[in-house]
Write a structure and sequence with these properties.
Blueprint: H1 38-90, H2 100-114, H3 120-136, H4 148-162, H5 171-183, H6 192-208, H7 213-224, H8 237-247, H9 254-258, H10 260-264, H11 269-282, H12 291-307, H13 314-343, H14 345-353, H15 357-360, H16 365-375, H17 377-390, H18 394-414, H19 419-427, E1 430-435, E2 438-443, H20 444-453, H21 456-461, H22 464-468, H23 471-476, H24 481-502, H25 506-509, H26 513-517, H27 522-530, H28 534-553, H29 555-558, H30 565-572, H31 579-589, E3 592-593, E4 596-597, H32 601-621, H33 641-659, H34 665-668, H35 683-705, H36 707-714, H37 721-739, H38 746-756, H39 765-773, E5 775-779, H40 783-791, E6 803-807, H41 821-834, E7 845-847, E8 853-855, H42 859-869, H43 877-903, H44 913-921, H45 937-940, H46 942-952, E9 966-973, E10 976-983, H47 998-1012, H48 1015-1028, H49 1031-1034, H50 1039-1047, H51 1055-1060, E11 1062-1065, H52 1078-1089, H53 1092-1103, E12 1120-1124, E13 1134-1136, E14 1141-1144, H54 1150-1163
Parallel strand pairs: 5-6, 11-12, 12-14
Antiparallel strand pairs: 1-2, 3-4, 7-8, 9-10, 13-14
Helix pairs in contact: 1-2, 2-3, 4-5, 5-7, 6-7, 6-8, 8-11, 11-13, 12-13, 12-16, 13-14, 13-18, 16-17, 17-19, 18-24, 19-24, 20-24, 24-32, 28-32, 31-35, 33-37, 35-36, 38-39, 41-43, 42-43, 43-48, 44-50, 53-54
Length: 1170
């Protein structure tokens, strides 16, 4: 009975309504009811029996199969043993005359059946066969001894035999194999890769051991045998592929590396180039190769082509271009590692322990030597000769030009440190062309300008539609084969033209036709013949404006792959990088622009912007374009432009705060990702790719958040100057409001600090500390030192209001309350003292012939000499502390100048133009740093400038001047002046200056004087300046505009504007009638009568600067004020420059006022502090 809850003993029906059957007969029932019935058990048992019988049948079949395999193996072994017995029976007896051929045929059949390369006895039998065949002298004259198929099988057997033999016992077999392959190159098609790997081992050993010339020739023949010409099909591309990827990828081909000419004579380099091109285009053959193998392939390929007797033209160039494109990142990273490893043995030992040692180790010396050939004079000359020979047809001209451009751009990516050398060699070259009048040669810059300006891309961007609608340019930047070829040509032209601008002085920039044709040095002739006439310059500038604008303003549309939410979130630290995001990152970094792997559109943007800014700086220095030519205000709504830019700045600041959370620790946590080759990238390469991706993402984000800001940062000249000044002031006000919690006024800020930290009655220690750190006591004559000591620890906190107390020589405070005027007096005093040149100053800055200031280039060298004379070495703590102290002083001086700009205080200091250019460059993209220009040297060292100009124009042989790539610096020591000789390039003391590399020498000298020598001083100053004034704000102005921003407007003084913005106090205060005092009216009448120079002297007398604020006297802080100074007719007018106050006595006549005022400003009398 089955108990139930109902008390019924009847068994319930189990109805399955699901339509499914339980396929497992042993599964327990899922219902609560009783187990299966008898019928169900019977069915389950029957199924189990069937499965058991099936297993038994499978086991029986497997047993039979095993027996069959074993019997087959046994039969084969028996058969081979029988063949061995028969083979052995052939050779002990002497051979009857005429029967040797029969024995060889029988022996070959038996050998093909019995041979096992692992068995030593079989190898000995093979030796007997080879010896027997050699006595017959059957090869190559009696090659019909065997059937062709038998020769093919014998060749493959010999390959297998050689793989298991030592090299000293392989010469006879290898010689036989070479003879066979020469007759039948396709006989080892199926074993080509094994064959060449085998040869690689022989080549390695032949380089170590003493080998004869005959043995070297055998190895050469062995390498070339499968590549031999065939009367019907020609050389096999497959054979050349195996030669490249199984032989040339080996690292120890010592014989080839020592004797490349011997190997190259036996090769068809065009077919080798073609096979490499096919493989790198499809990448099928590269999947099993490491980056090291590909680097050795590249090095061997270069060596063989250098040794080849004839030029291979564009085929060689294309193969070289494809290899360099794929290996650019590895070459750039690992070639730079060589010096690091040489200079730091500890790093090398650590590197060898790292799991990525093979991929991140420095390049082998021999590989680096071959790569260096590509960038030296011989390599570039050969490049141009190859290109010239292939460019003799107008049909192939454009394609070859694009190929040359692509190759050169990749070369620049691989060897950034050799960039100037590459550009100079190419700049000095001529390109052969075919014109309607016949063959002609033109300078390479002009050639690429013609090629670039005739492209469809150039013409499309110059159309009015592109000027009105920048978005139309976006389509032209999308990948497309034909456009890629044109972008390469344009990009290379921009790189070459940039180099030309750097070595061109203003006299050669727009030469007259008579100057070009006149007698001059080859260097000057090359520069002038490469320059563009004015009409073409206008065309180029318009093209650059139309191209660069959308590259900043519409970057999210141009690079949409970098704008998806996940990657932006990753950039902003919102979410962690997921594996899918990493894959996307790897994919993005392997993208290409202009068909060049690893290059993105930012490279084009940098090249176009750099060229455009160089032309703009030259136009700013020496006008050659019409007024307002650079403006592009039609692309903006100028009515709301300032407010829109300020809003973008606020959004950028908010995102910058979030971005600060991302640090280098994110790089440390990078997972390893893989390239298509399946091999792990080195850590250095992964970090660089990650940073490159982050840079792309950041540029993309900036373009999304602030497109107008990006235009202002990189193309500021398209916006009027006065608008940019207003934006700058708005940025400063916005920053003050943000930092001070909305309390921009100094007194209100101090009040907010006190009230927020306990109030006036009970201020907390923190409140006292905040105000205390912004308070200083300074002694006149020691203002800079006191300020440095007390305010340097503030850092960017110097932006907040400071409170100054001047003390006398007895340390007693001077009378006066700092209502802003003492702060101005303090800042101007600091700059006056710090920038004072000569022995009485701090020697931080020096002046040129025009009294323009720039950092003392020898400051650190002089300091080092003094420390050295004191017996200190560079490793001593005192040495490092002294150098750090000097750097801090430059940094603090930068902060002081920034503080003046931040507070709108004008200082009467004029800086050298080249130094101001570095201010502007500090806020641009990292790759757009200041680049030294020959014209800038004129401000620094006129004598050196004239000397370089004379060198450039020298008509004779520069070698007669005995110059080398070194330069001498004069440094001051306690014992006088000492001369230090420094190299301008690696091993510069051994490299003479020739006529060809004269422009490069000039470029290096200019770079040393303007960039390298004052680098530490400039970097420290700009670091301090940038901590107060955001560098991107500085990038909105050129050098002359920055000078106006620091020192005021140099245009004529507007007396009426000054009058409208003047305040009056004391008896001069304007009453209810609204009329000025009689003396005040006389003062303004005198100001109108003064010449502009005299007005400036009055302004300097009152405000300490002779120039007006950029936006008029309404911006002068404190306000220009006139107060009565008594009735004494003999008293001179006096001033309080700290508060811009003129104390003017009440003179009775205009004549007296004018004479007293002139006397006061010319004598400098009456300066005091109220």
């Amino acid at each position: 009975m089955f108990p139930t809850f109902t008390g019924s003993s009847r068994r319930p029906r189990n109805v399955n309504l699901s339509g499914q059957r339980n396929t497992n007969p042993w599964a327990t029932s899922q219902s609560w009811g009783p187990g299966p019935s008898g019928a169900s058990k019977t069915v389950a048992q029957a199924q189990a029996d069937r499965e058991k019988r099936q297993r038994e049948r499978d086991e029986l079949a497997a047993t039979k199969r095993l027996q069959r395999v074993w019997r087959g193996c046994r039969e084969r072994q028996n058969f081979r043993q029988k063949c061995r017995e028969e083979y052995d029976a052939l050779y002990p007896q002497p051979t009857p005359p005429g029967s040797q051929s029969l024995r060889l045929n029988n022996a070959l059949l038996l050998l093909l059946a019995l041979f096992d390369p692992v068995r030593t006895s079989d190898q000995q039998r093979l030796d007997l066969f080879v010896q027997d065949l050699a006595t017959l002298d059957s090869t190559p004259r009696n090659f019909d001894l065997f059937k062709p198929a038998s020769w093919d099988r014998l060749a493959r057997l010999l390959v297998g035999a050689l793989e298991h033999r030592s090299s000293d016992s392989s010469l006879a077999i290898l010689s036989l194999l070479i003879d066979i392959v020469k007759r039948r190159p396709f006989s080892i098609t199926s074993t080509l890769h094994r064959y060449y790997k085998l040869l690689a081992g022989y080549f390695e050993k032949s380089g170590h051991e003493t080998t004869s010339t005959d043995q070297h020739q055998v190895l050469t023949d062995a390498a070339a045998a499968p590549l031999a010409l065939n009367s019907q099909t020609g050389p096999s591309v497959q054979a050349y592929g195996a030669f490249a990827y199984s032989f040339l990828t080996s690292s120890n081909l010592l014989f080839l590396q020592q004797n490349p000419k011997q190997v190259a004579r036996s090769l068809d380099m065009q077919f080798l180039s073609e096979s490499i091109t096919i493989a790198f285009s499809g990448r099928e053959h590269l999947k099993g190769l490491s980056k090291d193998g590909l680097l050795w392939l590249l090095a061997h390929f270069i060596a063989l082509n250098r040794a080849a007797p004839t030029s291979q033209g564009s085929k060689y160039l294309e193969a070289l271009y494809l290899q360099l494109s794929m290996l650019a990142d590895d070459i750039r990273i690992r070639s730079s590692r060589l010096e690091e490893a040489t200079n730091d043995a500890d790093d090398s030992s650590e590197l060898s322990k790292h799991s990525d040692a093979q991929d991140s180790a420095p390049l082998p010396t021999w590989v680096l030597d071959q790569l260096d050939f590509l960038v030296n004079e011989d390599g570039i000359s050969e490049l141009l000769s190859r290109f010239t020979s292939s460019a003799a047809s107008s049909v192939s001209l454009s394609e070859d030009a694009s190929l040359l451009a692509g190759y050169t751009l990749v070369l620049l990516r691989c060897f950034p440190s050799h960039g100037d050398d590459i550009k100079m060699r190419l700049f000095q070259g001529d390109i052969s062309t075919v014109t309607s009048t016949g063959p002609a040669t033109i300078p390479s810059v002009k050639y690429f300008w013609q090629a670039a300006s005739n492209t469809d891309l150039f013409k499309s961007i110059m159309q009015p539609k592109a000027q009105r609608q920048p978005t139309s340019v976006v389509t032209l930047l999308q990948p497309e084969p034909k456009r890629d070829l044109e972008w390469r040509t344009i990009l290379l032209f921009l790189e070459l033209y940039n180099f030309l601008l750097r070595v061109t002085d203003d006299e050669d920039f727009l030469p007259a036709e008579s100057q070009i044709l006149s007698q001059q040095s080859p260097a000057t002739s090359r520069i002038r013949s490469s320059s563009l006439p004015l009409n073409e310059l206008k065309q180029l500038v318009n093209f650059l404006k139309n191209l660069s604008f959308p590259l900043y303003y519409n970057l999210p549309d141009i690079m949409p792959s970098a704008s998806n939410t996940a990657r932006l979130n990753s950039l902003m630290g919102v979410s962690s990088v997921t594996p899918s995001a990493q894959e996307e990152e790897a994919k993005a970094t392997s993208s290409s622009f202009a068909g060049i792997m690893g290059m993105d559109v930012l490279v084009l943007r940098h090249a176009s912007t750099t060229t455009m800014r160089s032309l703009y700086e030259r136009d700013s220095r020496r006008h050659f374009l019409p007024d307002n030519f650079w403006l592009m205000t039609s692309k903006f709504d100028m009515d709301g432009f300032i407010s829109a830019v300020v809003l973008e700045e606020q959004r950028k600041d908010e995102m910058a705060e979030e971005e600060e959370d991302l640090s280098d620790s994110e790089i440390d946590g990078l997972d390893t990702f893989h390239t298509y080759t399946g091999h792990r990238l080195s850590r250095a390469a992964r970090i660089e790719k990650h940073r490159q991706m982050r840079k792309i993402q950041r540029e993309q984000l900036l373009a999304q958040v602030g497109p107008k800001l990006e235009i202002l940062r990189n193309m500021p000249f398209v916006i009027p100057f006065d608008v940019r000044v207003q934006i700058f002031r708005q940025f400063v006000y916005l920053d003050k409001s943000k930092r001070r919690g909305g309390n921009v006024d100094p007194d209100r800020w101090r009040l907010s600090v006190i009230s927020g930290e306990g109030g006036f009655n009970n201020p907390t220690a923190r409140g006292r500390d905040i105000l205390g750190r912004h308070t200083a006591r300074v002694k006149r004559g020691e203002v800079f030192s006191d300020a440095f000591e007390q305010f340097y620890p503030l850092g960017e906190g110097l932006k907040e209001p400071i409170q100054i107390t001047f003390v006398d020589q007895f340390d007693q405070p001077e009378a006066g309350i700092d209502g802003g005027g003492v702060t101005k007096e303090f800042l101007t005093s600091v700059t006056d003292e710090a920038f004072k040149p000569g022995p009485d100053g701090h020697n931080l800055f020096v002046t040129n012939g025009q009294n323009l200031l720039y950092p003392n280039p020898t400051a650190f060298d002089d300091q080092a000499e003094w420390l050295r004379s004191s017996g200190l070495s560079e490793s001593d703590a005192e040495w490092k502390s002294s150098m750090l102290e000097l750097s801090k002083r430059y940094e603090f001086l930068g902060r002081v100048v920034g503080k003046c700009m931040y507070e709108g205080i004008l200082i009467d200091k004029a800086f050298a133009g080249f130094f101001l250019l570095k201010w502007s460059s500090s806020g641009q993209s990292s790759s757009a740093d200041y680049r030294a220009n020959l014209n800038d040297l004129r401000e620094l060292d006129p004598e050196l400038y004239q000397g370089l100009i004379s060198l450039k124009n020298y008509p004779g042989d520069v070698g007669d001047l005995s110059l080398d790539f070194t330069i001498t610096d004069q440094v001051t020591t306690p014992f006088g002046t000492r001369t230090i000789t420094r190299p301008l390039r690696k091993n510069g003391e051994t490299i003479p200056v020739t006529n060809k590399d004269r422009p490069l020498y000039i470029s290096y000298v200019v770079n040393h004087r303007l960039v390298a020598q004052p680098y530490r001083q400039t970097r420290a100053f700009l670091r301090g300046l940038g901590s107060i004034i955001t560098p991107t704000w500085l990038s909105m102005f050129n050098q002359s505009e920055l000078q106006r921003l620091v020192g005021g407007d140099s245009s004529e003084i507007d007396v009426e504007d000054l009058r409208r913005n003047t305040a009056y106090s004391g008896l001069y205060a304007i009453g209810d009638d609204g009329l000025e005092h009689t003396t005040v009216q006389m003062f303004w009448q005198v100001m109108h009568e003064f010449k502009d120079s005299e007005r400036r002297e009055v302004l300097k007398y009152v405000t300490s600067t002779p120039r007006a604020p950029l936006l008029g006297f309404a911006q002068l802080s404190p306000q220009f004020t006139i107060r009565d100074g008594g009735t004494d007719q003999e008293r001179l007018p006096s001033t309080s420059t700290c508060v811009n106050l003129l104390k003017l006595p009440r003179y009775n006549s205009i004549k007296t006022l004018k004479s007293k005022l002139l006397y006061a400003i010319q004598a400098g009398a009456g300066f005091d502090l109220s």
